[in-house]
Amino acid sequence: MPMTTPPACESFLRDEYPRLVGFLRLQFGVDAEDIAQDAVVKLIDRWDRLDTDQPPRAWLYTVALRDGYRLGRRLRRLTGALPLLAPQSDTADVAEAAAATLDTRRVLAALPERQRAAVVLRYYCDLPAAVAAQVLGTTDEAVRALCHRAVVALRRTDLDPVDL
């Protein structure tokens, strides 16, 4: 039986899906589309049961983040490392875009996992600290502290989070 998507969910995903995939690419590098699609299927399945007081964005990112961590653990067990893949594109600026993306991923990969997640959620996904805190299962203050420490570390590498 085919799954039908509620109109409100469809509208939400139309706006949020590209950001979710971008977040997952910066956070994990590999299999971002697969992780995002799995999280979307779970969201559609649970849409009517979600708490209307809580934004679905936090739920979606939390599920995707946990799925990405699970996948990363499985891959590390199998291969010993989580490789970073270059973006796939047919544009004339492929080399420049790939270099910039790989450089950003390389610098972000050097951050501790929670700092990286906080920075990507706040600066790339442009989520408020409260929503990022829900996704990470912590407080607003902890998210701001993680971002501050990450920004200090990124500035030492001459990469400002605004450039992400």
Overview of the structural elements:
Belongs to the sigma-70 factor family. ECF subfamily. The protein has two domains: 1-82, Rna Polymerase Sigma Factor, Chain: A, CATH 1.10.1740; 93-164, Orthogonal Bundle (Arc Repressor Mutant, subunit A), CATH 1.10.10. It is built from seven helices and no strands. Mean pLDDT is 78; it is low at 78-95. By secondary structure, the chain is mainly alpha-helical.
Features:
single chain; 164 residues; mainly alpha; Rna Polymerase Sigma Factor, Chain: A; Arc Repressor Mutant, subunit A; 2 domains; 70% helix; DNA-binding; DNA binding; RNA_pol_sigma_r2; RNA_pol_sigma-70-like; transcription
Class computed from helices, strands and strand pairing: mainly alpha
Query: What do the pLDDT scores average to?
Result: 78
Task: Tell me the overall shape.
Answer: globular
For this structure, the CATH topology of the largest domain is: Rna Polymerase Sigma Factor, Chain: A
Tally the helices.
7
The figure for the number of domains is 2
Radius of gyration: 16 Å
Strand segment count: 0
N- and C-termini, Cα separation = 42 Å
Any low-confidence stretches, pLDDT <50, length ≥5? 78-95
Give me the oligomer status.
Answer: single chain
Query: What is the chain-wise order of helices and strands?
Result: HHHHHHH
**In the CATH classification, which architecture of the largest domain applies?**
Orthogonal Bundle
CATH hierarchy class name of the largest domain: Mainly Alpha
Domain RNA polymerase sigma factor 70 region 4 type: 105-154
Family: Belongs to the sigma-70 factor family. ECF subfamily.
Organism: Euzebya pacifica
GO molecular function: DNA binding; sigma factor activity
